[in-house]
Structure formats: structure tokens, C-alpha cells
């Protein structure tokens, strides 16, 4: 990895820094059961943000008009798409990225670090003038949370800058397309072409953004933040919001909502119609799964309902499918750093799991089936 070379006298760790040593290196193990020498690793195309993060760790988040000192400062790669594709690359996929930077120190290093992680940057645009996107991130050392202040790159990526030839080449051989809903006008063009080619699409629905509703109509899979299902649907709870999302978006195969230290929740649509089956309320179903959680366990588990249930929510109707509850690993407080990029890394893992390891994914967990 190449250190960040900036005109400022700042610490210069590499972009998209590698995992801490106590985590098991994933690449050699990840692909062993998923591919052979005659079977190249799957290709994922991402369209969205790649930027620079300036992370200042502080003792606690400042009050208005405070003057405080940072405990540490790091400069590293960021952007939802840059982060997610880096995670996917380290798990063994072959990512490509559509984005835009400027021909400045930050932009050149963004390109270099992505390339060093095995990400194909051939379809990124580089502006001769302007500035590459960057984000100031304040990391609260007490709560391990972060607050982001983003400055978009300039000039922005315009849809007409992505030629038909480059779009076609970027999608050739792609097994999945991923959007973080930045660069939404360009993303819609990519989504339309990917849909015509019947390439599955995964959407990162972090929050309501311009162009999100249009992109969701193309989605095969959605990963969203804890607040999104209620915010987007107006539902009374997250589980009800998940039923509403699958009811409104018939192309979607599953929606995953990330829940931080509580893990994640996934509602998966069934290919078998269960409309004649007895209804089961999603709130009741979730409660039954939560009772199966082993509170003493520090390792992640997946607890799943039976398949082909008629899962209902009084406000929005019902869908045929199953509900899955994933718990998170319990990490000792002294090993916690912050939550920067956690959701992006999760999406990188979802991309990997869906494309090359879905059949083996649950084998790595202890799975409970509800009677």
C-alpha cells in the first residue's frame, strides 16, 4: 500500500487501510471454496463516491463554540462505493468503479490506492481542474461514533461524460452492479442498461436522496440503515417498514437493515406463493426469533424463520418469504476504534456473499429453524 502524499503536514496512512491484525485475513480462505483456476472470480461494478476522509479523534463531541484538540488525526480513503468495493476486493471479487476525481494530490492517491487493492479504475473520470471529494470526520472517543461533514468534488460527474462505449465496457461481464445513490443521474443511466442486460442490482439505501426512488425500481437487493425503512415508508416500526418495502418494490428479492451492535435484520421474498397460508404478523415473528438469541454468545449467529411464510403487517398487507435475524460479534471495548465505514464493509460482504458464497454463508453460523 502506498502512503498518502498530501501538501499538508498531516499523518499519511494509506487509503482504505487494511484490517487490524486480530481479524482473520479473508482473501485466501474466501475464494478457496468459491472458484477454481478455470472459474474467474465474479465482477462487481460500483457507481458512486470515492473520496478522501480526514478523521479527527476527539475525547468527546464538542459543544457549539467550543475549542478542543484532537487526540489523533488520520487521512485515508473514503466514500461509500470506494469503501464497499475495497471490502469486496479483499474478499476476492473483481470490482470496477465508475466515479470522478480531479487531477490533484488527493485524486491521484484515490486512484492509486483503489488500484493497489485490485479495483479496476479504467472507468473513472479525472478532471484536470477542480477538487476531489473529501470529508471531515469527527470521531467521538467516548461513544465510538462519528460525525461527517462532506464536501463534494468539483466539477461533478455529468451523465454525458460516461460514453456509451465506456458504459458498455464497464458492464461487460459484470455479475452485479452496486449503487450508493451518489451521482444519481449517471447511476440511473447505468441502472437502466444493467437492467436491460438482466444484471442484478444492489442499492445502498442509507437515507433519502435525490434519485433514490427511481433507482429502487431497478433494485434486486437493498441494504439500508436502521432508520430508513420507517423514513421511506412512513411505517410504525422497522419490521413493518420492511414488509412495506417488499410490497412496494416487487422486483426486490431481499432487504437487509443494519442495526449496529445489534446485528442486522433481513426480509427475504419467497419464490413460492404463500398467499393461501395463515398470516403471521412480522412483529410477532421477530419477537419469536429474538427469544432464540443466545445472549451469552460473543460470536455472530443467524436465526431464521421457516421459509415460505405469509408474513403480514396490518398497515401494509403481506408478502411470501422468511425473516432472518443476524447477531453481531461482541468486540471488547479496548478493540473498538470507530464506526467509520462499517456499513460499507458490510455491503462489501453482502456483495461477496450473494455472488460467490451464498450457499455456504450460513454454514459459518449456527442456524436455528423455528418450528
UniProtKB/TrEMBL annotation:
One of its GO terms (molecular function) is kinase activity. The keyword Kinase applies. The keyword Transferase applies. Keywords: Kinase, Transferase. Residues 48-269 form the Carbohydrate kinase PfkB domain. Pfam families: PfkB. InterPro entries: Carboh/pur_kinase_PfkB_CS, Ketohexokinase-related, PfkB_dom, Ribo/fructo_kinase, Ribokinase-like. Transmembrane segments: none annotated. Belongs to the carbohydrate kinase PfkB family. This is Carbohydrate kinase PfkB domain-containing protein. It comes from Miscanthus lutarioriparius. The lineage of its organism: Eukaryota, Viridiplantae, Streptophyta, Embryophyta, Tracheophyta.
